[in-house]
Structure formats: structure tokens, C-alpha cells
Design a protein that fits this description.
By secondary structure, the chain is mainly alpha-helical. The chain has two domains: 42 residues, no CATH class; 83 residues, Winged helix-like DNA-binding domain superfamily/Winged helix DNA-binding domain (Arc Repressor Mutant, subunit A). The strands form two sheets. Strands 1-2 form a two-stranded antiparallel sheet. A hairpin with a 2-residue loop joins β3 and β4. The C terminus is likely disordered.
Amino acid sequence: MIARCNAEREKLRVELEALFATVSLIQADLRSLDEGRPLFSDQADENLIVDDGEISQKPKARLGDQHYLMLCALQNAESVSLEQVVRATRLSARRVKEQMVADVGNGVVKNDNGLLSITPKGIDLLTRFQQLKRSQGVPLPTLDSLENEGDRDEAEPETQDEEGEDA
């Protein structure tokens, strides 16, 4: 009985959060009308992302080479352990663990009992990074390009603040 109540409470919490997000959007639209701006535009706001009923700013499409390879390792498998990401990227366990903790906090990666998977927000970030690099004519990072850079354990975990800027 308690488990059923807890499940219902969680469902209601998610619905309530979605409702609050909707109210915020409606209030923003009403402010637009007050300011004489059109309520709807022909283009969707590409800087917003909706993930599990939550609306947030997309993070900037900036990733370090190591971070990119970690996200690629997650994208190429349904869910993997930390050790599998370490093997796939040839990075230190410490480096991968620190980055995955930061990514879970940013909603880019999901940790389900030790199994990591990339979220829709993470896939979007990875895709936009790839598009950015291609548009700049810059090759995407590879395991070989990392090995040619020297010490691979010096990089700090990449985090982003609430506005999507690098922290």
C-alpha cells in the first residue's frame, strides 16, 4: 500500500512540475502580448529542451575531446558500467567517474544502479557539438588524437552552470 502511494505521489510530483512549467510559459506569452510582441512565431525556440517533462536551456555545444569520447561511448550502447566507459575511451577511471558525476548532475547522463546511459539532453548536446565541428571544418576527436596529446588525465570535469555556460 505504501509503495503504491509513493508511486502515485511521484507521478503527481512530475505532473505538478510539468504544470508549473506550462504556467511559466503561458505567463511569458502573456508578457509578450503586453509588450506588443506576437504570441507565436514561425520558429520554435531552439535553445529550449524538454526532458522528462522539464523545460530547460540547452547547454552550449562545447565539449572537450575526452568528454566527447565518453558521451560517444554512452551513445553507442544502451547502458554501460563506468568500467566499460573507461575501456572504451582508454581514460583513467578517476577522470571518467568525475565527468560522469558532473554529467548526471547536469542531466546529460543517467545513472541507474551503476549503469550509465545518455539522456535525450546528452544526445542533443553531442549532436550539436558534432554539427558545430563539421561546420567549422574541424575533425571530431578520436582515440588516436587523444593519445597524441600526451597526458590524458589532466582535464577537469566539464560542468555547465544554469544558463548553459561552461562553469
